[in-house]
Design a protein that fits this description.
There is one protein chain. The longest helix has 23 residues, at 88-110. The protein has helices spanning 17-27, 46-49, 70-81, 88-110, 118-132, 143-158, 168-178, 181-193; strands spanning 7-11, 32-35, 59-62, 65-67. It has a four-stranded mixed sheet, with helices on one face. Strand 1 (7-11), helix 1 (17-27) and strand 2 (32-35) form a beta-alpha-beta unit. Helices cover 53% and strands 8% of the residues. The chain is globular, with a radius of gyration of 17 Å. It is an alpha+beta fold.
Amino acid sequence: MAPASQLKLYTNVRSRGSIVEWYLKELGVQYEPVTINMQKKEHKEEWFTSINPLGKVPALVHGDLKLCESGAMLLFIADKYDERVETAEDRALCAQWVLFAYTDMAELLFNKNLPEGRMEAVMTYLESRLAAHPFVAGPEFTIADVAVGSHLVFSKVFLPQLDLGKWPAVAAYEKRISARPACEAWASVVCGANMPPGK
């Protein structure tokens, strides 16, 4: 496990860095959180753009490695710290669901002009997976559940009209994920902020 000084997360409650924090806490990985004050434009200051040239939050630093996309951060943390993600097949399956969350699920939350039938197609696909498996990537909680679960939690704020009851396996899964202590603590803060996540 890396000492806190070796793993530094630049984040803000209104960014997807909070998702990365949830995963780190699930794993019990020590890290140094650095809160970026977005109102004061700290993310546009030269010292921060030397880490993320686009001036966006979050950013993760581990030794000489600098990461600027929260999905990549999740995958890095899984590869380095999560013993449940052991094989190339495990990593590929988890990566598939992380990408699904960051593309298909994010589209449902933030695209106001969804193609007809898109919501039904995405949610039915997730329903079929969760009807056959207790967690997204199989029998155990993994990075895939942080990615998918976080977007289901976000739906309560950003898509309150979405009735998960239409997809009973998804609804039951969302309740199980939300009951996890690390998720519960994360959701209470993030949903309270009532703002869309950043990159």
